[in-house]
Amino acid sequence: MATYNTKATLKQKTALKKMVENGGNISKAMRDAGYSKQTAKNPSKLTKSKSWQQLMDEFLPDAKIIKVIQEGLEANRTISATVVVKSDDPKVRTKQATARDVDFIDVPDHATRHKFVETAVKIKNKLPATKTDITTDGLPIEVVSYRKKDNG
Asked: Which residue ranges form the domains of the chain, and what is each CATH number?
């Protein structure tokens, strides 16, 4: 954790609290904390300050972020599943061939895992800032249309 010689002001702490409450809108949080509309239009004045960085290090330490990302990379979701029991299963003596039970199972939540991977590579600066066209070398794609021949 970085060490700073500055202390966050009450207004900065309030802005952080308001930002957490509103889901991350820093401009709104700044206005709600008492910053002028003009200052709130340029939130980097706050977010690039040493005291703001100190608040971030205090309330969002790297170890906590890493832990949450690691947990997110293992995310599962619970789904309902129908379990079909075959009559020739030697472990089952009381159920018929078509007996079905509904159960709940955990399966990998790939969409959530993808979000955490994307966040992790952004943090590690491994995600390219610009997209690269790997199919046409930046050349325009010619649109070709055809008409089905009428056999009538």
From this structure: 1-60 (1.10.10), 61-129 (no CATH)
